[in-house]
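Notes from the 1:1 (GR / supervisor)

We went over the backlog. Supervisor wanted to see one worked example end to end before approving the batch request, so GR pasted a single chain during the call. The sequence is below; no edits were made to it. Supervisor asked that the structure be written out right there so they could see what the output format looks like.
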Amino acid sequence: MTGVRAALLFLLIAGGGAIAMLTGGMADSAFGYALSLLALTALAWRGLSLLANAPVAGRGARLADLAVPVIFGLWIVFLWQAITIGYGVPQVLLPSPGLILARLATSGDVLLDDFRQTFLKAVLAGYVMGCGSGFLVAVIADRVPFLRRGLLPLGNLASALPIVGVAPIMVMWFGFDWPSKAAVVVIMTFFPMLVNTVAGLAAAGAQERELLRTYAATNGQALLALRLPAAMPFVFNALKINSTLALIGAIVAEFFGTPIVGMGFRISTEVGRMNLDMVWAEIVVAAVAGSAFYGLVALAERRITFWHPSYRQRH
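Structure output shown during the call:
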């Protein structure tokens, strides 16, 4: 535990210095302020290094795995706050985390309405339709060789399509409300799911396939008993990729026509008004929502594919 105690000592000293700096208790000159930042960062760096390499096991190891990224993220926020406030960075260039937090607190209703419009409607609807249809088409294409050979090149082509070219077309087809954004999400999520699922269905080992043939298993039985389980890591890989693509696609699509609500609409509007704190507040909401969405998919992956070698625990 010596390494953990030393890490906590370094981090406590760095944290105390950070609080003193933010409250105006350190270094009046710009040069001294910079030296203070560097010294505190070196202390925090040393503490995080010791904590990450500390010889702990069991629950302590899990706590350390959680604490390192949390403390590192908080330190980045501190540096952001200290630099923007200490050196008087204009708000129109980069607002401080304090201003962004204040905007989050005072504009909660607007942010919640934008979240509902973009995430709960466009993102979720397009994600379910795009991933679901991509999975079903992949299962069909796996049994139809010419369909598989024809769709996979199209998937590579679709992955190169720019969102800024597709979004205006979808707005013209489906209107200005969330269905047009969901259509963009469907296009962005369909082909990653298709390509990954087809690759996953082909990943089952030859020996396992031969064993099922000796048991006279039908194609459907082989699909359910062997090929779909083997494809699950590939499917979840596509689901995780699509969880971020869907949010990006919906936000960008809202730049090209939307009702007066939505994350993309708010970002484009507030940038024009030079309200960068509101823009960053929307970015924070989008980042938290996207991270939570990704985390839920990753948790489901861990529960379903616990048998995969990457999740096996060494005792």
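Supervisor's comment: Residues 2-87 form one domain.
Batch request approved.
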